[in-house]
Write a structure and sequence with these properties.
Blueprint lengths: L2 H8 L1 E5 L7 H10 L4 E5 L5 H11 L3 E5 L4 H10 L4 E2 L5 H9 L4 E2 L5 H9 L4 E2 L9 H11 L4 E2 L10 H5 L7 E3 L5 H5 L3 H14 L1
Parallel strand pairs: 1-2, 1-8, 2-3, 4-5, 6-7
Bound molecules: 2-keto 3 deoxy 6 phospho gluconate.
2-keto 3 deoxy 6 phospho gluconate (ELE) binds next to strand 8.
EC number: 4.1.2.14
GO molecular function: 2-dehydro-3-deoxy-phosphogluconate aldolase activity
Catalytic activity: 2-dehydro-3-deoxy-6-phospho-D-gluconate = D-glyceraldehyde 3-phosphate + pyruvate
Amino acid sequence: MSVLDTLGAHRVVPVVVLRDPAHADALGDALVAGGLPVAEVTFRTPEAATVLRRLARRGDLVVGAGTVLTAGQVDLAYEAGARFVVSPGLSADVVRRCQALDLPVIPGASTATEIMAALDLGLDTVKFFPAEACGGLPTVKALSAAFPQVRFVPTGGITERNAPSYLDHPAVAAVGGSWMVAPDLLAAGKWDEVTARCAATVAAS
Ligand SMILES: O=C(O)C(=O)C[C@H](O)[C@H](O)COP(=O)(O)O
């Protein structure tokens, strides 16, 4: 199964901002216990590559890098063990670097023009970001009508409450979000709550 298929099988991608690499294992345990062994580690902090490496080396999670903005960050993510790369927008540099490394990449796209640029780069899966701010499910439906070959991973403003309606749309491969790994939960070490939210998410999707 390809990594993108694996993400599609899990249906929900937890978007992680973890500042302390020492907590990576506790987070990994919490995700696995909640039945959602997937993490998109955002490259928004200096520690991101270390957190990613610690989660990836466990072997029981599918770990990727998020907020990847440059080809240099693609290299960092790859070396740390990322199995997929996610960007908030579409950078041909980022996409081509991922393709050179055979690393699945999901660039952000929220307009028809951006989707066409992704198609030109040989991609068929995009992150619809920021999903709720860009019109939510009605926009996915409208874009999907024009691009039936494209799969979407809506992210940004997705919650336990609205995730199921996105996931019901056949063009939606998965959704991304931070609600089960909210930064305040991670900062406070509330791992049981992370597990509970993951389990609730799995049950609802
Ligand atoms: O910068 C990126 O590449 C991102 O991945 C942004 C994240 O998708 C959102 O921060 C998650 O959105 P929320 O679930 O609304 O917190």
